[in-house]
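Changelog note: in this version the structure field was regenerated for every chain. One regenerated record is shown below for reference.
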Amino acid sequence: MDLPLPHLDRPFDYLVPSTMDSKVTAGSRVRVRFAGQLVDGFVLERVSASEHPGNLAFIERAVSAEPVAGPETARMARAVADRYAGNLADVLRLAIPPRHARAEGRSRKEAEAGPLTLPPADGWVAYPAGAAFLRALSDGRAPRAVWTATPGEDWAARYAEAVVATLAGGRGAIVVVPDARDLNRLDAALTALAGPGHHVALSAATGPEERYARYLRVSRGEIRAVIGTRAAMFAPVTGLGLVAILDDGDDVLAEPRAPYPHARDVLLTRAEQDGAGALVGGYARSAEAQLLIATGWAKELAASREALRARAPRVVPAGDDADQARDAGAATARLPSVAWRAAREALAAGLPVLVQVPRRGYVPSTACATCRAPARCPHCAGPLALESAEAAACRWCGRGAGGYQCPQCGGRRLRASIVGARRTAEELGRAFAGVPVRTSGRGEVLDTVPSGPSLVVATPGAEPVADGGYGAVLLLDTWALLTRADLRAAEEALRRWLSAAALARAGGTVVVIADGAVPAVQALMRFDPGWHAARELAERAELGFPPAVRVASLTGRPEAIEELLAAAHLPEAADLLGPVPVTGEEEQERLLIRVPRSQGRALAGALHGAAGVRSAHRAKAPVRVHIDPLDLL
């Protein structure tokens, strides 16, 4: 039933009137009376007898006979709810679109799909075992891979080939991408390869009725391949044989509504339940993806060094201080001479130039004033924040950091890191007179730009694809990304840089305004995100950070958090950090609980049980429980 209270997160038995017998099926929508009120619900199963000793009420109304929450969907939703300490009703609300009666009345066959042919594996030749991965999918097996795409790779074509190979093997597929631009690109690639009628695209852009109609086609088994944005992770594909996700480090893949599931983890859970193959891919690699390789759950799928050298542009680091000291003009514009030369040479050759500028508004962080290494708490390794000109405190455990000493260089002075970018398209237009300047960002996002000399200024994630590739890519204000007070700052910076650098043409130039000794810059220079991900995972394991451990975040009033902890039977290895005040939220505190990965399910169960105790006692002050949050500040 659609009841958000944790202590009611269980099935309830009702009698089915004989007049509704044909419409009440497993997975169908019904209306029932609960505590004197009519509420919505789904039928989980039909049984001949009930174990409930008391009298049972009858179902009030059969809303629809469509089995939109069938046994497989219910089982998947239950697993996700247990993983994230949430309620089954909340997951089903995320998984199943709102009902539209007109969509249910449509013909069950809307388009005839043409015959499928097994796609060639030519595009996977650069990746050892790439062709074998496709063969395993077409043979009905369940290969699992973490794929690192080379610069300039047509990732949409590679994903389309994996989907068609799976369909040719008689099984279904789900592919989740971060945004609408990626979805449109994948939709076009899959239509070109397989023809119409074999797949549907699920996203909010289609509108409520059309989205529900497409969901029904998948639920009825008419369509066995689904591509889409975050919500497509729940698509009820019949005979699931492949789950795939692009750029799993993108934060838009984390659901902002309770119980806050991440698309990657939901898809991997489904792969485990259904015995399906998995493909986690992109130009970058997250620590979570690296953990899949480290544990043997998935195999690495990366190009040989020879193929990478043939496709990759040249990456040139440019340390801010040294370059600006040598070039007064560059210091004024905050562009070193090597970046100016790269841009001028590309424009002179008739090629476009991409300039990536970080967004404004990143949370200020604290770093060593000498070497700019992020400042961490000596006790829990959380990020430090400057409370005054002389004092700093941890954002996680709240301890003061008097007498701080940088573990990298021994420096004792702290500084606030830079925030955002100050370069504008107008400044670049004046510097390169007569060259067209295009912008892509918050106001308007461009999908593509034509070939020819032009300057394209874009924020991370809004970089358009250039016909033939960019002659030069300039990555500006890199410290705005690297020094954020965020566990994933270096990983996120490298992900943003690789996404932009991958748009450069082979033989082009990528200039990154950062010290070449920084590990993330080293990984960019070699186009080796796997090395950086392995380094990140090792450091997080040493410091007790996710994904090496499981973490729960509790946010609420101090007394509410204390009540929840008193009712929770936490695992013995639970480590409590905080609570600390939540910035910008009056009388709100945040407590972190971390446990070994082996105790993650026990932690989620303990917190869900404690939330049930509080809701049964009608506690007024809520506590937000978030398992493995992306933002640990």
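Spot check on this record: The chain has 20 helices and 26 strands. The chain has four domains: 6-96, 122-307, 313-362+419-526, 548-627.
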